[in-house]
Request: fold
Amino acid sequence: MPIKQIGIDIPKVDANNKVRGVAQFGADLSVSSPLHLKVVRSTKHHAKVIKIKTEEASRVKGVERIFTAQDIPGKHLVGTITKDQPVLVSDRVRYVGDPLAIVAAQTIEAAEEAVKKVEILYEDLPSVHTPEEALKPHAPLIHDHGNLLIEFQVVKGDVVAGFKEAEVIVEELYETTWVDHAYMEPDAGIGFMDEEGRVTVVCPSQNVHYDQKEVAGVLSLPLEKVRIIQCATGGGFGGRLDITVQCLLALATYHLKRPVRIVYSREEVFDVISKRHPLTIRYKSGAKKDGRLTAIEVEILGDTGAYASYGATVGIRSAVHATGPYQVPNIKVRSRMAYTNNPWSGAMRGFGVPQIAFAHESQMDLLAKAIQMDPIDFRLKNALTIGSETATGQSLMASVGIGESLRRVKTWRDQLISVSCDSPRPHLRRGIGIGSMWYGIGNTGIANPSTAQIEILPNGEVRLLTGVADIGQGSDTVLLQMASEALGVPIQEIKLIRADTAFTTDAGATSASRQTYISGNAVLQAIRHLKQEILREAASFLQEDEADLFVEDGEVRHRKKRCISLPIREIAKRTQKRFKGEGSYDPETRKLDPQTGQGAPYATYAFATHLAEVEVDTETGKVKVIRVVACHDVGKAIHPQNIVGQIIGGVAMGVGFALMEEYIPGETTSFVNYLIPTSKDVPEVIPILVEDREPSGPFGAKGVGEPALIPSAPAILNAIADAIGERIYHLPANLERVLEAVKKSKRGGKTWQPC
Amino acid sequence: MEVNLRFTLNGRMIHVMVPPHWTLLRVLRETLGLTGTKEGCGIGECGACTVLMNGKPVNACLILAPKAEGKSIETVEALASQDSLHPLQKSFIQHGAVQCGFCTPGILMSAKALLEDKPHPDKEEVKEAISGHLCRCTGYQQIIEAIQRVGEKVKR
Reply:
């Protein structure tokens, strides 16, 4: 029986353990008699550290050891791109939350008591809290290399000529704020020396091989002396791309040579894990009255906080995506990221694209209104198609589903408008809005390879080995589906070994919506190589010409002799050999020119359009999102139900980004003052999949993790503007901002025909 | 100082000695090793630690252990029998209601209490019943479908 695994909804392979409560997350891991770790953290925004006094804390009963930066044998600084973030601070704290010391104690209580007794002598330094301030000529320096982390430009055509040609020009300022990932599992994990003498850390992660490199550097150990294992991971959304608890656990394990355990509180997660970058975006765009965009000029300024983390990525990616999924002939985008003494910003679902999409989609509606064109028709007129050239000068050769997503949503919009009516209560206003997006799959214009192996052991066991961290999104399931389909072996007969540096090789991060596409391709290549090896062996075993043999449905078959068909696992058993296929894949990209930003940063792009229907209470400012139609071009849907799950979850996060979520440094401590959507805040989501196959994708697949979130907030904000006749330029559109907009609205909102 | 604590846990009588300031959640996870019940916030805001106390969903992080004295406590570990999953667990898998899975045990317990109280809830009733649970991955829709479908099956 041929195996058909692609495009079907098999049970997610991790779900059974999760519904039974037996999947082990960071705080569930057991290890014998661990010492408990707690971290001493900075209470200052910016200060020199004069002395860390640990004597009194050391005397607390149960305290075994207190570690400071002096105990670090290797590198003191970590960071995904720029290594500027101390594992433990020795000289200068740069934000409230910087780690200064680790207490290891026999009980949690003793560790907590000792943390309070560690005394830090500081000398205050002036602190900086906005990127504008940070970039002033005489601003206090946060890092010796200056407060500007990155400046990046995308320049194409002639914007002066483009704006001259424009018949309508719109220019506005958009602002977004810090957003917390709010993954449900607080960071936690264990450390121990494994049976082979490796410093071993088990914790939630989005990239164990990155963690391994950082820990090895910090401990000054060869890579093979450090082992990182990803446990069940309660969400990530980018927050677990950086180092969280890994180095703390590893440092304590290295010195103590005994098991240790750490569990962050929710407050600690809010305090010390990265945030979404607040961006200020000045956006000017022009169009002809016939609806053609002529030029955009965009200035992006972001707050990366105390440390670089993914600030450069966010700066570059937001600039590259600034046009939205549209053809614009004349472009000038400048993007800068500045250090401040605020909490550090890092990767969060979309790397700056959700922020820039809020701006470009608001602009599209404003322009459409100015030229009195239907907002969907206006988008369609400018939408990228096959053969289009992007802002970076890349020609799109295939799988450009933006037009189709707009057309599918338009059908919905037209139906909704024909049946929509306002509530009989006049203070409730309804509106409909559109948001579109594009998103480059994988890292931006740099190598981002993945590797994988597939093995058949002499006992016939099939093993798929991958470094990919499944953080709940379903990569385990999807990679197994692909392996099963390509190899012709049922899924339940393939053993998955993943995200343990002792057994698997680097697959890169679970980020940038890249694992289905990039690691999927690596798995397929591994299988091609495995098949070659099997055919070679089969030819000699069967004494047939290798060229006459092929693998199909898990069997070696002969092109002419029908009687020859031997399951591939039988070949391993009968020859008592182990077969291994190595696979790797690095998407074809062309790096961006540092002056002009021209290049081909991604091998493929995902596209999407959302429609949001909202009801605005003009008395309270409350916005209810009633429905979101979410249409996504995903290439080929390997597991449609997983994709739908990503989309609905992305919309929910988009509702939070649009209306509710605002992390306030020094104030946000819990879910009491950081609200994320509950079951009562989420709209009905109608997912629509457009499967415009990507020729370079595994079975035609692209990615959807981040695209799912990106168009929601723009669609919701456009719907609010439609409802009340006034636009909000600052996220989130909370009660105060909505009421302010209502007050400003000259028309007092849209008038609807009664039903 | 520790206190005696007796309660019924997943149908079996339990007797433990615990510090009186410990929460029920801590007793379940640390003393009894039942880590299916999760701690997401520690202050009753996220619902990840939901267990049933005398059939009603409660946040175990807010219940001081002595309050469990004499009560019947059910956790996610009690849902599946030796050889088969509870209908809610099956339905969650079938409907794609599990992503990272951290909120799943708590929501399952609230769903169980809901269906015992109201075997055929409508969508709004399901939304209400799980409104004390935060889930960051799913957007709730597939969870709501999974719960409702079990209710429909019970009806048939």
The CA atoms of residues 5 and 16 of chain B lie 5 Å apart.
